[in-house]
Automatic annotation (TrEMBL), chain A:
Protein name, entry field: ATP synthase epsilon chain
Function noted in UniProt: Produces ATP from ADP in the presence of a proton gradient across the membrane.
Organism expressing this protein natively: Aeromicrobium ginsengisoli
Boundaries of every ATP synthase F1 complex delta/epsilon subunit N-terminal domain copy: 5-84
Keyword Ion transport attached: yes
TrEMBL record, chain B:
Pfam families listed in its UniProt record: ATP-synt
Annotated family: Belongs to the ATPase gamma chain family.
Stored NCBIfam families: ATPsyn_F1gamma, PRK05621.1-2
Protein name (record): ATP synthase gamma chain
Swiss-Prot/TrEMBL GO biological process terms: proton motive force-driven plasma membrane ATP synthesis
Membrane topology according to the record: Peripheral membrane protein
Keyword Transport: yes
Oligomer status and interactors: F-type ATPases have 2 components, CF(1) - the catalytic core - and CF(0) - the membrane proton channel. CF(1) has five subunits: alpha(3), beta(3), gamma(1), delta(1), epsilon(1). CF(0) has three main subunits: a, b and c.
GN (gene name): atpG
Amino acid sequence: MADLLQIELVAADRVVWSGQASQVIARTVEGDLGVLSGHAPLLSLLVPGVVEIKPPDGEVVRAAVAEGFLSVADNHVSILSEDAFLASEVDASATRAELEAAQSEGDQDAVMRAEAKLRLIDKAS
Amino acid sequence: MAASVRELRAKIRSTQATKKITRAMELIAASRIIKAQQKAAAAAPYARELTRAVSAVATFSNVDHPLTTEKENPTKAAILVIASDRGLAGAYSSSVLKEAERLVEKLRGEGKDVDLYLSGRKAEAYYNFRSRPFVESWTGFSDKPEYSHARTIGNTLVRTFNLDETDEEAIDPERAVDELHVVFTRFKSMLVQEPDVIRLLPLEVVEGTEAPTEHEVLPLYEFEPSAHEVLDALLPKYIHSRIYYCLLQASASELASRQKAMKSATDNAEDLIQKYTRTANQARQAGITQEISEIVGGANALADANAGSE
């Protein structure tokens, strides 16, 4: 078995998730990107969306991220985003309310964040 | 007799009440410093990774970015002053403001115009009272800043620096600046907090406290979509993170100086109570002595009068 990836999913004010995984899937500006062990060093920009982290055993960890970036080097993957939430931390009805509030205020950033969270909820359920 | 016993007792009671309040404020500040420090520690991984990424891009690509380029003849500077929302924190706000004034003088001396951006009601009040103009101010979060506050401030400031003509939200061209400084209070320890100035823009990538060591060779990154676009996205985030760092330092410093100020207020109240209690005891004793001598004197006078009449 190849080496595992060391993952750090970091939001601006806390570490959201860290640990080992065999695969990470994230959506970058160039399209969906899967990272396996031994990936070449890479710095890429993320679009708001869902990041999937597959640990060697157990459940897939899903998280919603806002704009951010992903860096890979030496089997070490850092996913940075100003806002990031694990699937277990978001609540569907609260997020819909947030989305509506953001749409009525015309706050584009907030709309995108809320949509990313909703996509996460859809995937997780 | 300087003051009656009753007046002194009233003074003691009111000082005791004040002491209870200052003591409570001291304890609250002390417990919130710990929270502020935890927040700073929680923000460290993000700042570290971001610094790493920015230095990686800066090292492996020779792209010139407007945010990192020095203007040849800077004529306009912006200063972000981070002070507190509330007082009762000793000299905290006034020392930041003094430092800011010094910087303004220095920049004016170099022939630069200065635009002020303020954070904290105390800073706002200072400039309002002196009827001196400032461009924008943010208040209400000095003791518990969130990342979103740093983002709001950062977006405004980056826009003043990086006037993009295609930007539809482009601000008044008069607000455009050539450099940006931040005045805040650095939290050195629970006992020492010092006002400090950093120049945020044009950007010099400074290594964080946990920067990669010199021996560590940064890997040869591939950039997607391109080094320039990655840098474009990273730099504003880097600035937000620096501002967040300054806000967190300032909030820890504010709480520490509030705790210090309230501790000395409590100590002073204790001293006052002791002094008043002694004076009150003395006054009571003097009153008793006077009564006794009056009684003795009266009794003697009566005895003398009786002896004379017999």
